[in-house]
Specification:
There is one protein chain. This protein is of the alpha+beta class and about 525 residues long. It folds into three domains: about 1-95, no CATH class; about 175-355, no CATH class; about 390-520, Galactose-binding domain-like (Jelly Rolls), CATH 2.60.120. The protein has twelve helices and 17 strands. It has helices at about 10-20, 60-70, 100-130, 135-170, 180-215, 245-270, 280-295, 295-305, 315-325, 325-345, 360-380, 480-490; strands spanning about 1-5, 25-30, 35-40, 45-50, 70-75, 80-85, 220-225, 235-240, 390-400, 410-415, 420-430, 435-445, 445-455, 455-460, 465, 470-475, 510-520. Strands 9, 11, 14, 15 and 17 form a five-stranded antiparallel sheet that branches. It has a four-stranded antiparallel sheet with strand order 10-16-12-13, with helices on one face. It has a three-stranded antiparallel sheet with strand order 1-3-2. A hairpin with a 2-residue loop joins strand 12 and strand 13. The chain starts with a strand and ends with a strand.
């Protein structure tokens, strides 16, 4: 007979197996919740569960100990061991004293803690991937991980109650905590929760401020600063103008992450801890840890870039596009910086009163990071589009003379094989005021993407393209006659010329880049 059961509580599992044995069914095999039973004499066996020392294995000493008790190992599954012994040999309990029982439940709690770490990483990765627009599958991942996490958390609470009762029996806790201790614990939990929610907000402020600082250092002008987002643009962002060279653009892209990381390093080096306000130490420690984790984006996204799956509008992608650095180089440098900062964080943990940052915590933190990185790579791979789904991309480099006949018109035939939503991104600049660059994707007489400006850094709204042939046009104009000709060709409104000062006799040059890709969200 085969029955399916899924237990989080090993005591209930043991009780159920013994109940089945009393009815004449002896459990012989287990796999993913499926228990196989064979007929036996009612009450012939007594079952017990235990925790193995290693995955799918036990030591020879353990096997010898089991044999000496007259029991046998029925099966090994993961870290769980199911044993049984003939009922005629008497009662069967693996742990009879308080000390060994505490060790048994502690091992189960530690295993559950590791599983909770993995599921928490999946939950946070799914939420992050969904919010950042990797894929809607992120919400599904978050929901599944959250539902799996809840029963483990419930059982962890149950295990803590058992361990507390056992500790009381061992007379380790002689006195109960007073009212002051309960109030302090309440405030501690409030501070931890507030820090976890407040850290992302503070990070967004510093991140966008970092972009602004880079713009000011490079002589540009910040035109908008929205660290909390706005109604039509939820994600925090800023915009700027007046920067033309690639080096400056690269600084702007990377400074958003440098400023929070620099703040973290300064805190780790110089924060001595507050003697009067102990809760402040915990708050600073948690915020520093979250700022440190944010550095992982510079490790995960280059990996996605190597897999041809990436967010083309993220700071990391823009930095790679602007500087031309190989993703592996950026990933290696970020990994080195992250490792050194993590080492410094663990060394200085006592200053933040983070007593839980011990060896066990360090292992779980590493598991959390590895799982989060793996989940983000999956979200990138199945969510964001990359080189294999790019419809068209390239650099824009044209020289324009000053004569009336100098209108430059470049066109490229694009074949759409897979119908669906497509998005476009364009960035260009001209070296003199008054000249204008234009871009339009045309299908027959209809324009699907189009913009015209003397400087632009824009993302187009998604448009639906049927399969077929399209033409991508680029126009580069230096005088009003060129503008009117452009409007006549594309059907653009020719009435608004207030932003442009036309000087037809002065040459110009335009540089930039563009990309049109499939929107799979």
């Amino acid at each position: 007979m085969v029955k399916f059961r899924w237990f989080y509580n090993t005591d209930k599992e043991t009780e159920w197996l013994n109940h089945m044995a009393e009815q004449g069914w002896a459990m012989t095999e287990f796999c993913f919740g499926f228990y196989r039973f064979e007929r036996c004499e009612p009450g012939e066996y007594i079952y017990q569960t235990d925790v193995a020392e290693k995955l799918f294995g036990v030591s020879e000493d353990y096997r010898q100990f089991v044999e000496e008790t007259g029991a046998e190992i029925v099966c090994l599954w993961g870290f769980w061991v199911i044993l049984r012994r003939k009922a005629e040999a008497g009662s069967f309990q693996m742990y009879t004293d308080v000390e060994s029982t505490i060790g048994y439940y502690t091992k189960i709690k530690n295993l559950f803690g590791t599983v909770e770490t993995i599921e928490a990483a999946g939950l946070l990765s799914g939420i992050y991937g969904a919010v950042m627009g990797y894929t809607r599958f992120g919400w599904v991942l978050a929901l599944v991980a959250g539902l799996l996490l809840l029963p483990f958390l419930w059982q962890t609470v149950h295990l803590k109650r058992i361990l507390k009762e056992l500790a009381n029996r061992r007379e380790e806790t002689v006195t109960a905590p007073g009212e002051g201790a309960h109030i302090h614990m309440l405030w501690k939990r409030i501070v931890i929760v507030a820090s976890l929610f407040g850290a992302p907000v503070l990070y967004a402020v510093l991140h966008e401020l970092g972009h602004c600082i880079a713009v000011w250092l490079c002589g540009g002008t910040v035109t908008s600063y929205y660290p909390f987002g706005i109604r039509d643009h939820v994600i925090p962002h800023m915009s700027y103008q007046g920067i033309t060279d690639s080096f400056s653009h690269g600084l702007v892209d990377i400074f958003g992450s440098i400023i929070p990381l620099a703040a973290t390093i300064v805190v780790l080096l110089f924060w001595k801890g507050s003697k009067k306000h102990a809760l402040l130490n915990i708050c600073v420690g948690i915020i520093s840890g979250i700022f440190l984790i944010s550095t992982l984006a510079w490790i995960v996204e280059p990996i996605g870039r190597l897999m041809n799956r990436f967010d083309p509008h993220s700071d990391v992608s823009k930095f790679l596009d602007t500087t031309g650095l190989h993703p592996a180089v950026v990933m290696f440098c970020a990994l080195l910086i992250f490792g050194l900062t993590l080492f410094l964080f663990i060394k200085r943990r006592s200053r933040f009163l983070l007593g839980f940052v011990d060896r066990k915590f360090a292992v779980r933190f590493l598991i959390f990071l590895v799982t989060a990185c793996f989940m983000e790579m999956l979200l990138l791979y199945f969510g964001k589009v990359g080189a294999d789904t790019i419809l068209a991309e390239g650099n824009i480099e044209y020289a324009i003379t000053g004569s009336k006949d100098s209108i430059v018109q470049a066109e490229y035939e694009i074949l759409v094989e897979e119908p669906g939503e497509y998005v476009g991104y364009a960035e260009w600049k001209l070296n003199r005021e008054g000249a204008v660059a234009g871009m339009a994707l045309m299908g027959g007489d209809e324009s699907y993407l189009g913009c015209t400006a003397n400087w632009v850094q824009a993302e187009f709204y998604p448009v639906y393209l049927d399969s077929g042939s399209y033409t991508l046009y680029f126009y580069f104009l230096t005088c009003e006659e060129d503008w009117l000709e452009y409007c006549e060709i594309t059907g653009t409104d020719a009435s608004n010329l207030s932003d442009y000062t036309w000087e037809p006799d002065i040459p110009a040059a335009v540089t930039g880049k563009y990309r049109i890709l499939r929107n799979v969200q």
